Amino acid sequence: MSALLPEGFRDRLPPHADSAAEIETRVLSVARSYGYERVDPPLAEFADGLATRLKAGALRDAVRFVDPVSQRTLAIRPDLTAQVARVAATRMGHHPRPVRLSYAGSTLRLRAPELSPKRERRQLGCELIGLDSVAAAREVVGVAAEALAAAGAGGLSIDFTLPDLVDTLAAGPLPCAQVDELRARLDAKDAGGVAAIAPAYLPLIEAAGPFDPALAKLRVFDATGVLTSRLDGLQAIAEAVSGLATLTLDPTERHGFEYQSWLGFSLFVAGGPREVGRGGTYTVLREDGAEEPATGFTLYADQLGQATALDRRRLFLPLSTPAEDGARLRREGWVTVAALEPGDTPEAQLCTHVWREGSVEAVS
Amino acid sequence: MSALLPEGFRDRLPPHADSAAEIETRVLSVARSYGYERVDPPLAEFADGLATRLKAGALRDAVRFVDPVSQRTLAIRPDLTAQVARVAATRMGHHPRPVRLSYAGSTLRLRAPELSPKRERRQLGCELIGLDSVAAAREVVGVAAEALAAAGAGGLSIDFTLPDLVDTLAAGPLPCAQVDELRARLDAKDAGGVAAIAPAYLPLIEAAGPFDPALAKLRVFDATGVLTSRLDGLQAIAEAVSGLATLTLDPTERHGFEYQSWLGFSLFVAGGPREVGRGGTYTVLREDGAEEPATGFTLYADQLGQATALDRRRLFLPLSTPAEDGARLRREGWVTVAALEPGDTPEAQLCTHVWREGSVEAVS
């Protein structure tokens, strides 16, 4: 009875919890090597302040409670990036730009998001605040790819999108009176719907798939050259990670990228049905009301759980093994498991090896 | 305005967040080397189930909310050890004993505990479930001491207590009708109060302080020998860590050890006003209603925050530094910070070194 957990919550047991911790350490270690320093915002903060930096409506799914100290409503964070943006804009507002920040932490939701039953999620990532240039995106996409490789995630693929593509075209060479509807039809790959609203946009549906041919189609489609700088930038970003990942392009994909500016990307690994992370360029609201550009990525650590196999060799130390032997073996990298009473056995302690008469023997 | 956080919550900024993460990694790495594998229970679970394993009344200070999915009350954990005990008793109930588990996670309280304004705390530790013997306690106290040393905490001192001492004496050679009141007077070091209730217990007030003389006084006090096995055990545990810490003994200290059985200990580090952790022997409720012995320790990571100074050398890579140079320097252990636009400087990026014409130069 007491073993039951609410839907969307779970215990992570050995060896999965160690494996998940190791993955986080490796991801954040790559981030750190590129100068991303860690910030660690609190689990809860004032709900109204948090709401200003969350996607519209996101607070509805947050756990909220009245704080007996302030008598105000607090919310448990449903997302960490909003807090990192707050830190960058406020307490680190004086720091010269760009600021490179990394983070890892748990998030909680009252209701599970679509496509996933989880209500507690572990989120980690990097944010580069102050720039959304091609150089910034090259770095961020590169760090994401290298971090996933370090975490043991094989078969990485990156799907790029251009979230403001339709707006840019509609405001320029291809005017359209129903932009919202057009975006929805393009997002759904609904050729009939697109043809009914703005047939000039139909080639965009075809300009999706493996990166190079899709980009070539986009360049042909962009007869007026209004997209040239974006496409050049996208190509430069793709070149930076072409050796690390399979690349695809879905230029009109908008779902989940509503808050990204010119660039978005989703990260997938082999064998994973869902994306393991996403990122792109966006804007951060400064305390003075101005906006500043930013680029970042977030990984959903739970999706990476099975990617890294840890060394689980365990060396059993029989009763009365000298303490110095154990200390030396641990220094040599062994996990030692000491017998604490006469009946203890290597098998009961899931040990792969035994320390016997001064040498390591494999358990047969 | 949006920078304000509720009382008892805070942002951890660079370099403190990296430092705190490094401390956790080091503590858990020592635990792992002794065979303690990590478990990671969820932030929230059913409030009634959690309450059965928390100290009486602890749920009052937990953040609770109604789960829209189950329509039952959930609680955010105010403490992690209750969850670890649940995992050991239920999902790992079939595992041969002893089971060695480690954990690290955040806890949340509606109201701050006494002596500390913090409402979110980071808790990490080890639990050895299935044994509360002297051998078990020697291992657990030793792991705690080694973990704190690895985390850079200097000047460790360990204060031991014997939580069931008074009960043992009152049930044996020194009967006392007012045991609860006697314990409270002893805990308060109130000699007058002790004399009024049971003057035979007065020597216990003096048997506190540096470990060896205090233990010697206890041995003299224990004329009937009812405490001999406990005192021998305590001495053996103390010998195991005598080289790693300053040891004290406060045999009647009960505060916060109400749930410990025969042994309790508090951990202090130099310069810290409050304890950085505590531990001892206790019992875990199994699913079949039986109890099993256990031994463990918990560290309050926030109290260790300043103990470890990280290397903050950062190497600035000017614009157009070849990607291979950066990759090689990171492999060599450098944190590299790449210029992403012409105006960027090593100073703005808080860099200590610059990569210039193929060599590392210190920023003057």
TrEMBL record, chains A, B:
Organism: Sphingomonas lenta
InterPro entries per UniProt: aa-tRNA-synth_II/BPL/LPL (IPR045864), HisRS-like_core (IPR041715), HisRS/HisZ (IPR004516)
GO BP terms, alphabetized: histidyl-tRNA aminoacylation
Domain Class II Histidinyl-tRNA synthetase (HisRS)-like catalytic core, residue spans: 8-304
Protein name: ATP phosphoribosyltransferase regulatory subunit
Residues bound to L-histidine: D79, L80, T81, R109, Q123, E127
GO molecular function: glycosyltransferase activity; histidine-tRNA ligase activity
Coiled-coil region(s): none
GO cellular component, one term: cytoplasm
Keywords: Glycosyltransferase, Transferase
